[in-house]
């Protein structure tokens, strides 16, 4: 009898954790599930947006790249040349990147008339806006931490959801592997929620875990751990927010550049045929070599080269295989997260996962609405003699250590509950807490 009672207590505990985890992260999961699928199609969307600047009709030869760069710099007073995108088609508008006040501005220059077709800050490009919403909610560091907090609680939500799904004396697979459609609305939405959660849980956990290197708290802790294991300064091929990108750009600096060899450098770059998009960047402060980099979304195919502008020789070449094993693992994870690792099927899996998460959110709200009491939030009520099970306590401690933002939030929530919420009867009863 005691054993059966403990099972009921454990189930209710996991149910309560699942409920509150959903309460914390549902609004954010909806935002991420909308912006994420858009970002999966970044190459196609950017190609469509820029299509009118490609294959421009004109007769005769295009102007020199030097002339295009000078036109771009002149169009943005006070700017300096930073980089140019290597376009294989000479009838494409030149994409010149200039710096002004430590911000990148992309200038589209007609290759023959040198007319400025468009200029836009890199941060204002459509996909950069989507990325900003997805990673920072337009709120900088604060937004970054909020997204990280939501991701951590989403991990809790998925793990507790799998525990609740686990069959306990079920007869058959109906309601476990497929939804029952003819047993009323409550059973229908319960099954939709449970079955969808089962099928997308692994994919959703993968996306949440591979997104952690971009976060502020976990990402910086990860970077610090890598630094302790490496005698050399640690660099990484992914950023941790807009602030870090600007800081890195400012630290990099640019040298006073001789553009006389720019056209020859571009011809050399085109001949190397690196995966697009490819940028040719001016030497950094105190250096003389130009940087040629493939920024393809499929990170294992990225290549970075340093080129001598005088001899037009590749002085150094860094490929994905040259990175440390841990960085390769993260690189594979990021490429898959962004839908670029294995083509359209990768993008389809990302869309499917986002659709599944939206289904979970919608079905959760509908289930809560159907079952909500009139005078309470609707969380599972705590039993009078309920105690935290050792297994659940261990899971909470491990997750709190591995996910610092989650651990901090648990401490804050615990203190607020103990010091304030339990001492106010109306709030205590509404939340379903013990006195």
Can you walk through the features of this model?
With about 425 residues, the chain is of the alpha+beta class. It has helices spanning about 1-40, 40-50, 65-75, 125-135, 140-165, 185-210, 215-230, 240-250, 260-270, 325-335, 345-370, 390-400, 405-420, 425-430, and strands at about 80-85, 95-100, 105-110, 115-120, 280, 290-295, 305-310, 315-320. The chain has an 8-stranded antiparallel β-sheet. Helix 1 packs across helix 5 (about 140-165) and helix 6 packs antiparallel against helix 10. The longest helix is centred in the first third of the chain and has 39 residues, at about 1-40. The radius of gyration is 27 Å and the shape is elongated. It starts with a helix and ends with a helix. The model has no long low-confidence stretch (mean pLDDT about 90).
Summarize the structure.
With 435 residues, the chain is of the alpha+beta class.
């Amino acid at each position: 009898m005691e054993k059966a009672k403990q099972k009921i207590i454990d189930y209710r505990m996991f149910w309560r954790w699942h409920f509150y985890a959903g309460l914390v992260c549902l609004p954010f999961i909806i935002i991420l599930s909308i912006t994420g699928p858009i970002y999966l199609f970044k190459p196609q969307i950017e190609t469509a947006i820029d299509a009118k600047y490609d294959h421009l009709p004109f007769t005769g030869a295009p102007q020199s790249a030097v002339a295009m760069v000078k036109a771009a710099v002149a169009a943005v007073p006070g700017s300096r040349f930073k980089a140019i995108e290597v376009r294989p088609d000479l009838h494409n508008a030149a994409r010149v990147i200039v710096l002004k006040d430590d911000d990148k501005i992309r200038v589209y220059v007609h290759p023959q008339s040198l007319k400025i077709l468009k200029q836009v800050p890199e941060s204002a490009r459509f996909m950069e806006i989507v990325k900003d919403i997805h990673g920072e909610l337009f709120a900088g560091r604060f937004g970054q931490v909020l997204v990280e907090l939501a991701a951590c609680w989403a991990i809790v939500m998925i793990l507790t959801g799998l525990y609740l799904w686990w069959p306990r004396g079920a007869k058959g697979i109906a309601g476990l592997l497929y939804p029952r459609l003819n047993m009323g609305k409550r059973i229908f939405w319960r099954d939709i929620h449970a079955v969808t959660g089962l099928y997308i849980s692994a994919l959703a956990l993968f996306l949440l875990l591979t997104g952690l290197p971009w976060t502020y708290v976990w990402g910086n802790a990860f970077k610090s751990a890598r630094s302790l294991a490496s005698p050399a300064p640690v660099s990484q091929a992914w950023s941790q927010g807009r602030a870090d990108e600007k800081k890195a750009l400012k630290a990099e600096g640019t040298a006073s550049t001789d553009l006389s060899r720019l056209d020859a450098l571009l011809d050399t770059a085109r001949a190397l045929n690196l995966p697009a998009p490819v940028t040719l960047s001016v030497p950094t402060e105190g250096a003389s070599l130009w940087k040629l980099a493939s920024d393809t979304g499929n990170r294992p195919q990225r290549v970075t080269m340093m080129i001598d502008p005088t001899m037009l020789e590749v002085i150094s070449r860094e490929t994905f295989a040259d990175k440390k094993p841990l960085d390769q693992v993260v690189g594979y994870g990021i490429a898959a997260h962004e839908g670029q690792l294995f083509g359209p099927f990768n993008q389809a899996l990302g869309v499917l996962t986002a659709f599944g998460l939206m289904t979970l959110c919608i079905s959760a709200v509908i289930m809560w609405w159907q079952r909500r009491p009139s005078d309470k939030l609707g969380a599972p009520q705590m039993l009078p003699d309920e105690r935290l099970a050792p297994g659940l306590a261990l899971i909470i401690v491990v997750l709190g250590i591995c996910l610092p933002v989650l651990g901090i939030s648990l401490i804050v929530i615990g203190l607020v509950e103990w010091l304030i919420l339990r001492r106010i009867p109306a709030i205590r009863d509404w939340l379903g807490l013990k006195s």
